């Protein structure tokens, strides 16, 4: 069937472009709202830190995501003989439970298998970091399908790099607020050159604040940052509507400037996620670079998939102006919901 014939069939069956895109966006909105409400805590990783403080004696910190007032049912287990020498102290931090204690090993820690029991029943991962007294460190990412790993005596730089690249990719994939901002930016920007400038500005900006915040040079409280990120999405969605009405603004004429400004804000959000993961003390620059690369890979992959999807739809139907306006309103509604939710959490 020719393209013209396909369009004719679609028109006769009432399959208008606006209706198609609007239905798709309503589905996306429903998924995002439900996922944020039901499983936002599930996608945050757990974190297990094991530091040798004396021969065969280790200080343990175990951070697990909270679901309401209860933490995920996760337990750190070791294959060798482990003796707990201090009581386990638990303290909630708002969205996670932090437990600390000291253990003594009857067998060397290197060579033991560490298991995060219960991880296989969740949708989250666990980052494990072991620091030996001789300066050697080991970092690994455990998943529901592979909840255990053998602790080696040391770890290569390549293994650290791969671990944090994966964490960066996963963070942006599940970072719906960041992806909605990028989507709104793509609705404003018309033309490849402007899109490249805007995406580059956003990347450079959030890389700056991610680095500064991670290294402790500049920090902001996480809850106000998350609220401002949601508000930034509302503002971008409003700019899309303004552009479709034929109005002009700085965001419409020079979108890269707005992308850079808001990118600085989003970088603090990325830094908050990275601080939850923790960084290997001996490889902080490498882990920071790897996480940033992972974020960019995930972001570029999202942009590529979105552009391919839009191009494919345009081969079948004409995407009308009303569909773009509907997309902006859908993005704005979701972001407004997040804004109210996060402002309320900030004020509590």
UniProtKB/TrEMBL annotation:
Keywords: Membrane, Transmembrane, Transmembrane helix. The chain crosses the membrane at residues 172-192, 253-274, 286-311, 323-340. Pfam families: HupE_UreJ_2 (PF13795). Coiled coil: none annotated. It comes from the Bacteria. This is HupE/UreJ family protein. It comes from Sinorhizobium numidicum.
């Amino acid at each position: 069937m020719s393209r013209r014939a396909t369009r004719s069939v679609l028109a006769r069956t009432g399959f208008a472009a606006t209706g198609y895109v609007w239905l798709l966006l309503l589905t996306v909105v429903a998924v995002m709202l439900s996922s944020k409400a039901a499983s936002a805590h599930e996608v945050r990783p757990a974190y297990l830190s094991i530091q040798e403080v004396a021969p065969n004696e280790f200080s343990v910190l175990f951070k697990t995501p909270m679901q309401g007032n209860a933490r995920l049912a996760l337990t750190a287990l070791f294959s060798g003989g482990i003796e707990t020498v201090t009581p386990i102290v638990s303290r909630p931090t708002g969205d996670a439970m932090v437990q600390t204690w000291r253990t003594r090993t009857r067998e060397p820690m290197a060579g033991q298998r560490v298991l995060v029991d219960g991880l296989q029943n969740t949708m989250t991962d666990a980052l494990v970091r072991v620091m030996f007294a001789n300066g050697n460190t080991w970092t690994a990412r455990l998943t529901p399908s592979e909840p255990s790993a053998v602790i080696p005596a040391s770890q290569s730089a390549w293994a650290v790099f791969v671990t944090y690249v994966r964490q960066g990719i996963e963070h942006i994939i599940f970072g719906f607020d960041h992806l909605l901002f990028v989507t709104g930016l793509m609705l404003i920007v018309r033309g490849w050159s402007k899109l490249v400038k805007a995406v580059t500005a956003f990347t450079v900006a959030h890389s700056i604040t991610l680095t500064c915040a991670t290294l402790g040079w500049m920090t902001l409280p996480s809850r106000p940052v998350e609220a401002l990120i949601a508000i930034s999405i509302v503002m971008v969605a409003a700019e899309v509507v303004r552009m479709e009405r034929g109005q002009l603004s700085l965001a419409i004429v020079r979108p890269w400037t707005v992308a850079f400004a808001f990118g600085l804000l989003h970088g603090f959000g990325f830094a908050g996620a990275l601080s939850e993961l923790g960084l290997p003390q001996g490889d902080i620059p490498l882990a920071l670079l790897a996480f940033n690369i992972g974020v960019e890979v995930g972001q570029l992959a999202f942009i590529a998939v979105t552009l391919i999807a839009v191009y494919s739809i345009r081969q079948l139907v004409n995407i009308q102006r009303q569909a773009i306006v509907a997309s902006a309103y859908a993005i704005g509604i979701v972001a407004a919901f997040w804004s109210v939710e996060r402002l309320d959490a900030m004020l509590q």
